[in-house]
Amino acid sequence: MTDYDFEITEVSTLEDIFPQKRDCLKELKEYLFKKSSSRICILYGLRRTGKTVLLKQTLLSLNESERKKAVFITCNANTDFYNVLSFIKESIDAKPFVQTKYLKINEFKHSKKGL
């Protein structure tokens, strides 16, 4: 695979989670993990209010086999969002992505070219 200008974090290594759970964590998990259909969720808000922690907590609440189906991408100031799209396409073409069930993109606002 190509070297990318964004960070991919293995969900099983997300150790920087605060022990305190947000009030809306339960509602977010119910929405995201509803079995009836696919879900898209955009978390937005003021800086440093816990959006990233909330995403990580939702992933960590999955059992180990489901966690292996998750990809957590963190964009930065050098991230070209088209590279993120290329990563997703390459992953789908390589077939393991078919097993990916949860895709979280963090700090999208930092990508140089948004959608």
Main traits of this protein?
alpha+beta, three-stranded mixed sheet
Describe the structure.
This protein has 115 residues and is an alpha+beta fold. 30% of the residues lie in helices and 11% in strands. It has helices at 25-32, 51-60, 64-67, 81-93; strands at residues 7-9, 70-74, 102-106. β2 (70-74), α4 and β3 (102-106) form a beta-alpha-beta unit. It starts with 6 loop residues before the first strand and ends in a 9-residue tail after the last strand.
Cα distance spanning the termini: 23 Å
Output mean pLDDT: 77
Q: What amount of the residues lies in strands?
A: 5-15%
The multimeric state of the shown protein is single chain
Q: Regions with pLDDT < 50 over 5+ consecutive residues?
A: none
List the helices and strands and how they pair.
Layout: E1 7-9, H1 25-32, H2 51-60, H3 64-67, E2 70-74, H4 81-93, E3 102-106
Parallel strand pairs: 2-3
Antiparallel strand pairs: 1-2
Gist?
This protein has 115 residues and is an alpha+beta fold.
